[in-house]
Amino acid sequence: MDWRYNTIWFDQLDLSRIATVDLRTETLPPLQKKEYVSLRGYRQKNGLLDAVPILDEILYLELSFSGLRAFDGIGRLRSIKRLELVHCYKLESDSGLEEVAGSLRHLHILNSKRLHVGPGLRSLRDIEVLRLNACGEIDSLDFLFEFPRLLDFRFVDTNVRSGDLSPLIAHKTLRSVGFMDKRHYNMKSVEVDGALESKSPLPFQEFVSKGQWRTFRFLSANEGGAV
Question: What is the model's pLDDT at position 221?
Fold first, then answer.
């Protein structure tokens, strides 16, 4: 179990490597030797991440209800693999994401309606899982071709202005998508799912179970996953 799994079972990780902090009622503790960090209510006057200490250990960072406006300063997290933002309503720029283009593999953003696709996001050429749910309108899905390793893309409650969903099918490595059907879209979700399923008979997910629960991770091409 690690950051690659869709749902991370934190109880299966080394608890000494985890930090969960509500900054509305607590101060930021030392984060050395922490690999999985969740910060609720992180705020800086400039709306950036330049107050985060320089750390090599953090692999996963979740920010919720943060006043973040852009990603500048995130390069201080030199080994980050997965970044999640939840209900960061002030986020309006993807500037700074280029600082972690060499390490970031998963980016999940939920409920940042001011955020639009820009140069920072487009710089993430090694991204494998991208989720822009309930974010600002996307002009076109052509930007997906800039991500040659992309396996999963979700844009639930995020509108694609052009209505053209054909890049989802044409993308060479994309195997899984999620979105809400809209009248101006030229394909329904069931059509897209069927087309992606027919791309390859090889598995592209690995599942693990815990009692009645199950989670999964995507298999990259160098692990024998389908492309």
Answer: 64
